[in-house]
Specification:
Order of helices and strands: HEEEHEEHEEHEHHEEEEHE
Helix content: 40-55%
Distance between the termini: 57 Å
Strand content: 25-35%
Structural class: alpha+beta
Number of helices: 7
Number of strands: 13
């Protein structure tokens, strides 16, 4: 075998090894990034950058419509609560988002997950604080924005770790399922009452049919926890839900992990959804990605 063939084989092997062993980069918004381990593949499915200069015309339209919908919902809720001194919310709620599919293998088999990162503007936090009478006064005695990264981190550090399971959790879940059913049926009733061209009997029949569908849907939980930790991004809150979605006798076990931390521009919130059997695998991967050291209080 001549030298050229040996060089070609060596180069091919090097490139092949580099492709297999390379880590992927996950965008977290506000200029933040994280690298997966070399065992994990991250594929970006969708996203809108938090940097206005990197948004397309379609991105800007989607973000504008999303924020408009949230503004209307927030203002309607505040109006219904009768909050005195509240002012209409006209600022942005969402600054951007990304959605990734993650995949990786371990001794238990193949693991997949979906990772949604949501970037919440500091404007909405300042507005909510003002509506509910919370003010921040600077050294000169003037009112200043409540939101700063340091101020939010200080608040996070005061959170006491929480964990629920067993009978206590079953009671909470039963109440939440009942609330969910009532809320969904309330919205269905309102929508059906506005329908024109339907007789009262037809509306009643349709409401009964939809109520039957909704009543078969429920969630269950085996554990719920909230803790606070330190990471390469600063102080963060970590929440975990393990349980299942149930419909008419069918059960889909799963888990949801939530990571949230403040930046100078807003709050980064991440939601990771996966099968329950992959919960420990993905929690370990994300904790490594973010350099998380948690307080005691749950998994």
């Amino acid at each position: 075998m001549n030298n050229k063939k040996l060089l070609a084989l060596a180069l091919g092997a090097t490139l092949s090894f580099g492709t297999i062993a390379s880590a992927d980069t996950v965008e977290l918004g506000y200029g933040q990034q994280a690298n997966t381990s070399m065992a994990v593949k991250a594929v970006k499915l969708d996203g809108i950058s938090t940097n206005p200069k990197e948004r397309s015309g379609a991105d800007k339209k989607v973000l504008k419509e999303l924020n408009k919908e949230i503004q209307v919902g927030y203002n309607d809720k505040i109006s219904a609560l009768g909050v005195k001194g509240a002012t209409p919310f006209k600022d942005n709620f969402a600054d951007g988002y990304t959605l990734y599919q993650l995949s990786g293998d371990n001794a238990m088999g193949h693991n997949t997950a979906w990772l949604l990162t949501y970037n919440v503007s500091k404007d909405v936090i300042n507005h909510i604080a003002r509506d509910f009478g919370h003010v921040n006064v600077d050294r000169s005695g003037k009112h200043a924005d409540l939101y700063t990264k340091a101020h939010i981190e200080e608040g996070l550090q005061k959170i006491k770790p929480y964990a629920a399971e067993g009978a206590t959790l079953k009671m909470i879940v039963a109440e939440k399922n009942a609330d969910f059913h009532r809320s969904v049926m309330h919205h269905i009733d309102q929508a059906m009452d506005k329908e024109k061209g339907w007789t009262m009997a037809e509306k009643t029949e349709m409401k009964g049919f939809l109520n039957g569908l909704v009543s078969k849907l429920s969630v269950d939980a085996t554990s719920v926890s909230l803790t606070v930790g330190q990471s390469k991004y600063g102080t963060m809150a970590l929440g975990n839900y393990r349980g299942s979605i149930n419909y008419d006798g069918f059960t889909w076990p799963g888990s949801i992990s939530v990571y949230g931390w403040p930046t100078d521009a807003g709050v980064t919130v991440q939601i990771l959804a996966t099968e329950d059997t992959s919960h420990d695998y993905w929690q370990g991967e994300l904790n490594t990605m973010y350099g998380v050291v948690t307080q005691k209080g749950g998994n």
